[in-house]
Amino acid sequence: MAESLGDARCPKQYEQLAGSRVIEHALRPFIADRRCVGIVVALHTDDQQFQSLPVSRDARVRVTSGGAVRALSVLQGLNCVSARVGSENPWVLVHDAARPMLSDEDLAALVDALPSAPHGALLGMRVNDTVKRADEQGRSHTTVARAGLWRAATPQAFRLRRLLEALAGASLGTITDEASAIEALGDTPQLISCSLLNFKVTTAADLKLAARLLTESKI
What we know:
The protein is of the alpha/beta class. It has one domain (13-217): Spore Coat Polysaccharide Biosynthesis Protein SpsA, Chain A, CATH 3.90.550.10. Helix content is 31%, strand content 21%. The protein has helices at 22-32, 70-85, 104-113, 160-168, 178-184, 204-217; strands spanning 16-17, 20-21, 39-43, 61-65, 91-94, 121-126, 131-134, 140-144, 150-159, 190-193. The strands form four sheets. The protein has a four-stranded mixed β-sheet with strand order 5-9-6-10. A two-stranded antiparallel ribbon has the order 1-2. Strand 1 (16-17) and strand 2 (20-21) form a beta hairpin. The two termini are 32 Å apart.
């Protein structure tokens, strides 16, 4: 069984990773991209750590209180953006704080795709492995056809007003990614292939792998 990460003392986004915190690595590509004119970080109401990090002092970074579920945190962040841009309808990119391996190239590929993606776009990885469906005892009983299957990743990019509309009409507790809320409106966001390195740090093994990859990339 994989050892999970994150607790009240040290949420996984604040775990040490190659000399920085996981969330610092996650934010780095956006801070480096000058097309990113603003960054909103949704934090737990009791968070005492983010403001001590160097990334918090970037002039484009704002913070807001997160919610009990992912979609509510995203909604809080979108409301923060909406209050700043008024009637404008910019592209907004939603990224997991626990994805520290996003490359500049994958971020650029997503942003570059937006002019020809009216319904938005998201990064993802094609499923190449054989996929099994199991019963409650973990016994395989069906092989799932993998044609057309992707693993959704982040960032996911949509027009601000459309994503607000999608979340307003959704059951926030069931939303696991923004694209699913957009799809419920009948929209079909574009999938953009990204590196397998853009994985979410969930377990201790994930953290060790990310540390190794980041360390080797600096050699």
